Amino acid sequence: xxxxxxxxxxxxxxxxxxxxxxxxxxxxxxxxxxxxxxxxxxxxxxxxxxxxxxxxxxxxxxxxxxxxxxxxxxxxxxxxxxxxxxxxxxxxxxxxxxxxxxxxxxxxxxxxxxxxxxxxxxxxxxxxxxxxxxxxxxxxxxxxxxxxxxxxxxxxxxxxxxxxxxxxxxxxxxxxxxxxxxxxxxxxxxxxxxxxxxxxxxxxxxxxxxxxxxxxxxxxxxxxxxxxxxxxxxxxxxxxxxxxxxxxxxxxxxxxxxxxxxxxxxxxxxxxxx
Length: 274
What we know:
mainly beta, ten-stranded mixed β-sheet, seven-stranded mixed β-sheet, single chain
C-alpha cells in the first residue's frame, strides 16, 4: 500500500502581442499554483508554486511539468523553503520537467530546500530547450537544521539534472550525498559546511571574458564559489554555511546575466521578502 502524497502540477504558457499568460493549469494536492503576477509588465509572467502540506515526507511522489510556447517569458518560484522530513526507509521523489519552445525564457528560481537529518530525497530535473531559448535556474540546499545544531546524518540526497536541445545533451549533472561523518568532513563532501548551491544559465554562449567579469563581481568572504563555462552557458557552484549568502550571490549573477542577455533588469519576487 502506497503511503505519501501523489501530487502533480502541470502548467503551460502562451504569448500574444507581447503578453505571456498561463494557458493551462492542473494541480492535485499538495501542489498548487497561485495567481499569476506581472510586477514588471505584461512581458514576463511571474508564478508561485505552493506546497499545501508544509513539507515533503517519506513516500511522497511529486511531479511538476511546465511548458512554454514560442516567445514566452516566465519566472517561477515557490512560496517558502521546501522542508524534507526524516525517513526510516522510503525515499521522497520529485520529478520536474521544463519544456521551452523557440525564443522562450524561463527563470526557475525556487527558494531553498532544507533536508532534515535522516531525510531521503531524490529529485530529477529535465530541461528541453527550443531554438534560442534561455533558462536561468538555481537550487539551494541546506543539510540539517543548523539553527538547532542538527547535522545531516543517516540521510541520502540525490539530485539529477539534464538539459537537452534538439536531442543533444547540453549539460548532464549528477549529485549524490550520504549523511555520514566522514563525508561531512571530506573536501569531496560538505567540507564541514551546511549549504550547497548550483546556479545555471543555459542557452547562449558565454565568452571567457564574461566569465572573468562575473568572477570579479562575486565577494570573497570565506565561502567557496566557482563558475564553470559550458558549451552554451555556465554553471556556478556554492559551498558554505548560509542559504542567505548563497542566494545573494546567485541573485547577483542572475541580475547581471538577465540584463546582458534579455536587456531587462531582474525583478525580485515579492514572496522572497515575506
